Amino acid sequence: MNYDLKTSTDPSHTEFIARWYSGENCKDSYAAQLRTEEMLGYPVVIKPSNGFYSTGVTKICGAASFAHAWAQTKRACRLFKKLHGHSEIIIEEYIEGKECAIDGFVKDGKIYSLLFHMKYPDLTGPYFHETAYITSPFCSAKGSVFSRILEDVITLSGLDMSPFHAEFRITPRGKIYLLEIGPRLSGIGVTGQIMLDICCHIDGYETLHHLNDGKVLSYKPRGIGLEYDFCSSRNGILTSVTRGMQLGLLHL
Predict the structure, then answer these.
(1) How are strands ordered across the β-sheet holding 58-60?
(2) Number of H-type helices and E-type strands within the chain
(3) In CATH, what number is assigned to the domain containing residue 124?
(4) Do 31 and 58 reside in the same domain of the chain?
C-alpha cells in the first residue's frame, strides 16, 4: 500500500508535493472535470491512490479526454480496493521532467537508500509505464535532496523494519517532487532483488527476513544494472550492451 503524503497538513511538505485533490467526493467525471479546471487547470494526472505498475495512471491534457481517463482510473481503483482494501482517485498537476526512483530499507529507524533508478524513455504521458530502468548504487553525496525528502516522509509515516520504493520527478530547473512512496521494492520485489545483487552485493530476500536482527545493514556499492522490457516494437530496440559489459558497468 502506498503511503499518501497528500493527507498530511504539514506545510513544510508542500515544497515537494504537487497540487492535488481527491476525487472521492466527486459524484461523476463531469463534476471532477469542473473541479479540476477550477483548481488546477491542464495538464493533470489522474491515478489511484494505491496501486502498482502505473495501472490507471493517465495524463489528461483537456476536457475532451477527461471522462475516458476517469472511467479507466475508476476501474483500476475498484480492482485495488479488492486487493488492498483501499484506493481512491487522485487528480494532481502534471509535473514536467525526468522520472526516477529509489529503493532501500528502513531498519531500526535508520534509512538505507540503496538503489537509484533512472526511467527510460522520458515519461510524458498519456501513460507512464517505463521501458527501461538503468540502476546504480545510491550516492548519498549527490542525492542529499532526495535523502532529506525521504527522511521527512518516512519519519512522518512511521515506516520502520520495511523496504521502501519512492518515485520522483526532476523538473528541467532541477526541482524535485515526490510522486509516491510504498513499503515494497520495485517490480513487486523482483527488480529490487536482482538490482540489489548487481549494484550493492545484497541478497534482498535475506535482508527482508533479517530486518529484526539488530545488526547494521552492510553493503558494498559496485556495478550498474539494466532492466529492459522486450514487450513491443514501438517501445524501442536495444541494439548493443557490449561496451557497457566490457567496462563492467552492465551485468545481464
Answers:
(1) 20-22, 89-93, 44-48, 58-60
(2) 6, 10
(3) 3.30.470.20
(4) yes
Do 85 and 107 sit in the same domain of this protein?
Answer: no
Tell me the pLDDT band of 27, cut-offs 50, 70 and 90: very high
User: β-strands 20-22, 44-48: how paired?
Assistant: unpaired
Last-in-domain residue among 71, 93, 115: 93
- Residue that the C-alpha cell 472521492 belongs to: 24
Q: How far apart are CA 98 and CA 96, in angstroms?
A: 7
Domain presence at residue 4: no
- Residues 83 and 129 occupy one common structural domain: no
- Asked if the peptide bond before residue 126 counts as cis, ω within 30 degrees of 0, the response is yes
- For residues 169 and 177, the answer to whether their CB atoms sit within 8 Å is yes
- Is the separation of the CB atoms in 48 and 15 below 8 Å? no
Is the backbone peptide bond immediately before 183 cis, with ω within 30 degrees of 0?
no
Asked, for residue 252, whether it belongs to a domain, the answer is no
DSSP structure string for 26-72: -SSHHHHHHHHHHHT-SSEEEEESS-STTTT-EEE-SGGGHHHHHHH
Give 158-213 pLDDT, tens digit per residue.
Answer: 999 999 999 999 999 999 999 999 898 987 667 889 999 999 999 999 999 999 99
Spatial CA neighbour of 102 closest among 153, 175, 62 = 153
